[in-house]
Amino acid sequence: MKKKFLPVTACLLLVVMALGFQTTSAQSKIHGSIVDISHKPIPYANVLLLKLSDSSLVKGIVTTESGTYILQDVLPGKYLITSTHTGFAQSFTSAIEISRNDNIDAGMLELHELSAQLEQVTITVKKPLLEQKIDRLIVNVANSITFPGNTALEVLERSPGIIVDHQNNLISMNGKNGVVIMINGKMSRMPVSAVVQMLSGMSSGNIEKIELITTPPANFDAEGNAGYINIVLKENNNFGTNGSYSATIGYGKGRLIQGSFNINHRKGKINLYADLSYSRLKKPFPGHTYARISNKGNITESYIDLHRTDTTPNINGRLGLDLEISRHTVVGILLSGYNNKFTQGETNDYRLIKNNMLDTAGILTNSEMNRWYNYGSNINLQHDFNQDEKLQVNFDYIHYANDQPVHYHNAFYNNTGNFVYEQYSRGEKLTPINFFVVAVDYSKKLGKKISMETGVKGTLSAFTNDISYERLIQNSWVKDKGLSAEYKLDEKYSAAYASFNMSVNKKTDAKMGLRYEYTSSNLGTKDKKNIVDRKYGNLFPSFFISHKLNEKNSVNLSYSRRITRPTFNDLAPFTYFANPTTLLTGNPALQPAIANTIKTDYTYKQYYSSLSFSKEDHFITGFQPETDSITGKIILAPQNLVNRKTISLIISFPVNLTKWWTMQYNITGLWQQVNAVYKDKVLQLQQPNININVSQTFRIPKDFSMELSGFYQSPVLDGISLTRAFGSLDAGIKKKLGAKNGSLVFNAGNILNTLRFRGKTDLPEQNLVAAIDLRFTHRIFKLTYSRNFGKEKLKQKRERLTGAEDEKSRVQ
Q: What pLDDT does residue 90 have?
């Protein structure tokens, strides 16, 4: 395997180095010193090099013990230098112009003690849209012009390597399912359908950034074979009272209304903060489905044309308090919740063809409500024994509830158009879910070159899934006992971990960790006990090493072992009739999936490349079709496949064409092989695919800026099904409004109307042929106004995590 990858890696390195060569020529350096008003050197002061045109950050450095600094490899242009240090106000140099091969002496920059006069000095450092870190890719949502007015799900869908499967309510990263969603580092432990709905209603106005974490450390739960997606909401760490708000209106085959608000009050030892967002989207949902079943030489085909309208109001909120009870101890309380109420009404045309002749036609009139709401509380205690030793204790209670009534009315006609009969039926699903979590985390620096993190955790979870299905027979509702039951699940989960960070030498850092998890899970009904009764423990090692070849080049190598457990919704099945011949349900027989991944990275300045290989045994896939030739129905349910192998190649690089036109390219190439058993027959499917994500930023005079972005996803495997290519092109223009930190953004999303879900399963030898074409979103135009208010005297941010960081994905 290594021999096969060596030529690929060598070629990749040559390409990346060639791309970067153009930026290495004709570079200069700037040197100087940072002093106080008496010209005494200030050691370890922060020195930032900023572009004069827009104050964007070019590079940063810390002064030596003698207060000096050298900024190497500076491209020709006009710059400012700014410096800060604890106890001193920020100070700036005058403009510095650099040409080719210059060695500029910037002289001494004086820092003054903090004074009211200097509090008026502000600076804007614009982060790039995409930032590649060692173990994660960061999408800076707040900096993008095309993101305002979008939902969190739409932002996520446009992130590199992310695929949102609306049909199966799945999110995959770099070709792998098993993604864990976190909000501010706190796992969203709910059914994946609820996660997708929550994100589809969450306004991007309150989102600061999205972190795509492909190699989680040992202090994260081992859950999630693809890694973590952390949605970081905006936080304000300034003294006084301050905040921001935004409002969006939009239209695209339906109306969009969004609003977000956050406020922060920090004074003395108290910090009180809150945020609230609301959105409401109404849109049509057209689609087509096809299925073909053969039985003893007879061929039955079904066609459905969907005419549906979806309406989704969503509200999210948080309220938190941090209290500094001593110089070393902080206590925090956080309350959070959301309410998402999805409703849809549809009137669908149905045709049943037998042996190429119309047999039955129908009009299917259905209505559904799917409401998820949540509230949770967290108590956090953080004690710093000293600068190198910290203890955190978390207590969490989380409650979710789902109410999902569905009403069906089907009217059928014969092949001559005459009415034959009609059916009335209804389904109901009530699911309350509760979690209690206790977590203790301890970190300590053991020496100059080694530090340790360790912790323990315990979780108690329980839910009741009460599902029923009734038919109207002779004016009376009769329950179908085969499709009705009350499932109860109790699960106990415990974990312990230890992780060590080591500085091997000046150029090499290493991190290794080991996590142990033990799970006890029992699922049953009143009539059938122990449908699932499992007790299992697993060890999950992780290893990471980073080596700097020189100041411009670095390489990384990592290995991790992870698990994806069946979600609660999959184990305790629901019943949903998509049409008279297609049924969606769960699968209590699902087994956990284990993945082993090895990954290597190479970075040259801002150019990044990555190559990884993973194998997932008992891979859990989404709703997979299975035909019943006797009843003529197709049953869609999650399944365990034998395994899935994935090779991933990622290239990320910027292109700076001019001072006013910059680009960022992110390219992900995947090769996947799926091995499965379908009705005792071995299947092997494989499919290469590519994801290309490009953003372009244009700086225009008079406080205008413009952005053009888009992505393309080639066909990709979804279990034993294939999803066809899709993508999106988006554009936006922004105008800064005066000196009050306001802005007005107009953007257009999905301009080419290419965001469609088109999947097919073409296995005629297994009597399995089906296709689906759904349009979940349309071209949309949005106008967003946003503004910051209050004081802007910055305070150091407190690092605060909750104990349920890893608790909120397994309800999926």
A: 82
Per the CB < 8 A criterion, the answer to whether 403 and 430 are in contact is yes
CATH assignment of 2-120? 2.60.40.1120
Question: How far is residue 590's CA from residue 636's CA, in Å, rounded to a whole number?
Answer: 14
Listed ranges 172-186, 288-302, 563-577; the one with the highest mean pLDDT? 288-302
Residue 766's φ and ψ, nearest 5 degrees, are -100, 15
The set of residues, in sequence order, having a beta carbon less than 8 Å from that of 511 and lying 6+ positions away, is 217, 499, 500, 501, 502, 542, 543, 544, 545
Q: What is the 3-state secondary structure (H, E, C) of 100-113?
A: CCCEEEEEEEECCE
Type of residue found at 691: N
**In degrees, to the nearest 5, what angle opens at C-alpha 583 toward C-alphas 421 and 284?**
80
What CA–CA distance (Å, rounded) separates 669 from 691? 6
- The predicted pLDDT at position 329 comes to 92
Angstrom distance (rounded) from CA 185 to CA 172: 19
CA distance 13 to 608: 10
Please give the model's pTM, rounded to 2 decimal places. Answer: 0.69
Nearest C-alpha neighbor of 261 from the set 628, 619, 801, 789: 789
- Dmax of the chain from CA atoms? 99
**CATH number of the domain at 279-794, out of 3.30.70, 2.60.40, 2.40.170, 2.30.280?**
2.40.170
pLDDT tens-digit readout, 238-286? 557 888 888 999 998 888 898 888 888 878 788 898 989 899 988 898 9
Q: How far is CA 558 from the centre of its chain?
A: 21
Residue 508 neighbours by CB distance under 10 Å: 12
Domain ranges of the chain: 2-120, 279-794
C-alpha to C-alpha distance for 742 and 241, rounded to whole angstroms: 17
Q: Which pair of tokens denotes residue 313?
A: 């109001």
